[in-house]
């Protein structure tokens, strides 16, 4: 019964009609017979997704384009633009002032000197522009070919209009354009004296910085007794020189232009600024005979540039007047003796100070050499040899300290 049930259980596999489309005569050894390959399904048209509304995302404040975050950069760019604009405008204005001053005084200068604009380094045919531009605010020219002087250097020191810092400084502390005139006198055309008159501020600076004034006449005296207006101070080596130089014409110029005249300095021992303590020259500097004038170009609210330049013409005439006056002036016998004694004293003091400096350096060298010898003696390992070296060095030092005796041979 069990067998019958088993046969009945699997008998449906032998029935040909059990499976539709099955042909028993076909080869069933195909390895891919039972490979299940999914059939491609027809694509269905997918509907377009619905459009979503645009959402604006809130960006953090530190990622936003905010001009307040770049104020430093903006200020720097504005500062650079202002600096360059001020540079070109200031440079142009200084050049205009220098050309205007030179053209206004050129006729006067050519009447006094045979050559105007000659710096000694160029041929006259090569000089195209007499005015030399040293910097954006300093212009110079040289005049030569006149009796009793070797030449005259005119230097226009204008305000630093091309420098923004200088413009701000001038606004806080007012200053003026200046004309510096230096006349190099011939040695035989100027006597031995030093004289200077300057306003209070300049006199303080000159007394400290200029070597000749600090050496020969450091004392400042008010110019009130000469009836000169303003706070002017006089520095004079000899009293009679001040009375001789400040005559009626000179005093009238001080009264007429009390603010335009800054400094008048005459010296036969001019060596420039005072050297520092560590820059003392070994040789006595050779003084030069010079006349130095400093004038202010007084421009302001009530005076135009043209008017201020015209006011400097009488001051330039004063330069030529003083030049001829210094040539004619001679010291009295007492004043000449005093001036010569002062120069002899300064020369002796200079050589004395040089000798002291040399002696100090020689003492330092000897001390250094002595320390080196003692150091070498300490490095000797043999005690006996070290003792002999010390005794020899002590005898040498003792011999040097003894006074030298000269022996005279008598026949």
Can you tell me about this structure?
This protein has 411 residues and is an alpha+beta fold. Helices cover 44% and strands 15% of the residues. The protein is built from 10 helices and 10 strands. It has helices at residues 2-10, 71-112, 164-172, 200-209, 211-216, 239-245, 248-256, 305-328, 333-378, 383-401; strands at 115-116, 132-133, 138-144, 149-157, 177-185, 194-199, 221-222, 232-236, 261-270, 288-297. Strands 1, 2, 3, 4, 5, 6, 7, 8, 9 and 10 form a 10-stranded antiparallel β-sheet that branches. Helix 2 (71-112) crosses helix 8. The longest helix is centred in the last third of the chain and has 46 residues, at 333-378. The radius of gyration is 50 Å and the shape is flat. The protein starts with a helix and ends in a 10-residue tail after the last helix. 19% of the residues are buried.
Using brief descriptors, characterize the structure shown.
single chain; 411 residues; alpha+beta; 10-stranded antiparallel sheet; 10 helices; 10 strands; 44% helix; disordered N terminus
Short description:
With 411 residues, the protein is an alpha+beta fold.
Ends distance: 181 Å
The pLDDT mean sits at 80
Q: What's the gyration radius in Å? A: 50 Å
What is the chain-wise order of helices and strands?
HHEEEEHEEHHEEHHEEHHH
Largest sheet: 10 strands, antiparallel
Instruction: Identify the overall geometry.
Output: flat
Q: Helix share of residues?
A: 40-55%
Strand content: 15-25%
Helix count, DSSP H or I runs of 4 or more residues: 10
Query: Strand tally, please?
Result: 10
Q: Which stretches are poorly predicted, pLDDT < 50 over at least 5 residues?
A: 1-6
């Amino acid at each position: 019964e069990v067998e019958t049930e088993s046969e009945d259980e699997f008998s449906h596999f032998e029935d040909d009609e059990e499976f539709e489309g099955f042909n028993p005569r076909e080869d069933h050894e195909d390895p891919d017979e039972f490979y299940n390959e999914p059939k491609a399904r027809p694509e269905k048209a997918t509907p377009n997704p619905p459009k979503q509304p645009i959402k604006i995302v809130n960006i953090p404040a530190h990622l936003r384009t905010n001009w307040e975050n770049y104020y430093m950069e903006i200020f720097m760019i504005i500062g650079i633009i202002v600096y360059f604009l001020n540079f070109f405008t200031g440079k142009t204005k200084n050049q205009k002032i220098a050309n205007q001053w030179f053209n206004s005084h050129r006729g006067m200068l050519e009447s006094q000197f045979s050559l105007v604009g000659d710096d000694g380094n160029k041929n006259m045919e090569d000089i195209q522009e007499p005015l030399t531009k040293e910097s954006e605010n300093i212009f110079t020219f040289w005049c030569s070919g006149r009796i009793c002087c070797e030449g005259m250097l005119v230097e226009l020191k204008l305000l630093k209009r091309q420098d923004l810092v200088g413009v701000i400084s001038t606004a806080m502390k007012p200053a003026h354009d200046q004309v510096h005139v230096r006349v190099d006198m011939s040695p035989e055309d100027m006597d031995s004296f030093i004289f200077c008159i300057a306003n209070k501020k300049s006199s303080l600076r000159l007394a400290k910085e200029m070597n000749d004034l600090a050496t020969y006449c450091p004392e400042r005296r008010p110019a009130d007794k000469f009836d000169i207006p303003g706070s002017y101070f006089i520095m004079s080596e000899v009293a009679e020189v001040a009375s001789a130089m400040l005559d009626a014409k000179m005093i009238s110029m001080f009264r007429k232009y009390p603010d335009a005249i800054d400094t008048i300095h005459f010296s036969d021992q001019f060596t420039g600024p005072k050297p520092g303590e560590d820059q003392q020259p070994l040789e006595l500097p050779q003084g030069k005979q010079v006349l130095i004038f400093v004038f202010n170009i007084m421009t302001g609210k009530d005076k135009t540039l043209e008017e201020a330049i015209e006011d400097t013409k009488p001051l330039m005439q004063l330069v030529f007047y003083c030049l001829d006056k210094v040539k004619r002036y001679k010291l009295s016998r007492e004043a000449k003796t005093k001036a010569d004694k002062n120069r002899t004293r300064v020369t002796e003091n200079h050589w004395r100070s040089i000798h002291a400096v040399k002696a100090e350096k020689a003492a330092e060298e000897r001390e250094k050499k002595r320390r080196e010898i003692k150091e070498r003696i300490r490095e000797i390992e043999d005690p006996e040899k070290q003792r002999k070296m010390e005794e020899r060095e002590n005898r040498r030092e003792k011999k040097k300290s003894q006074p030298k005796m000269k022996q005279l041979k008598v026949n």
